[in-house]
Design goal:
Elements lengths: L11 E10 L4 E11 L5 E9 L5 E7 L2 H17 L3 E8 L12
Antiparallel strand pairs: 1-2, 1-5, 2-3, 3-4
Length: 104
């Protein structure tokens, strides 16, 4: 995959992935985001579940944004190999979107 996530400043990086197959009644999402923490390091946040339901969430702490971005790349590669596709990419200043930040 040629997509590279570059994180140069303490800005939010977010990827929303989707895996749907109506014949198998499959409608899953996976969200990967890199965010700065209050202590100057970085966090990779992973959220996943079925569309329309509450999902699960895991937080992984890293020493810097470079390490967190590398971990995001690892999870992105792992999920795309399992059939997920990117439906939305965001790189912003941590400002909420007008639609509430969720959706496809």
């Amino acid at each position: 995959m040629d997509r590279t996530i570059v994180t140069t400043s303490p800005r939010l990086q977010m990827l929303v992935l989707d895996r749907t197959d109506p014949q198998q009644n499959m409608a899953r999402f996976y969200v990967l985001s890199v965010e700065p923490t209050l202590f100057g390091d970085a966090a990779l946040i992973r959220e996943w579940g079925r569309w329309g339901r509450s999902g699960q969430r895991r937080l992984h702490l890293y020493r810097g944004l470079d390490e967190a971005a590398e971990a995001l790349e690892h999870w992105l590669l792992r999920k795309t190999r399992r059939g997920y596709r990117i439906v939305r990419t965001e790189a912003g200043d941590n400002e909420p979107e007008p639609d509430g930040g969720r959706g496809s």
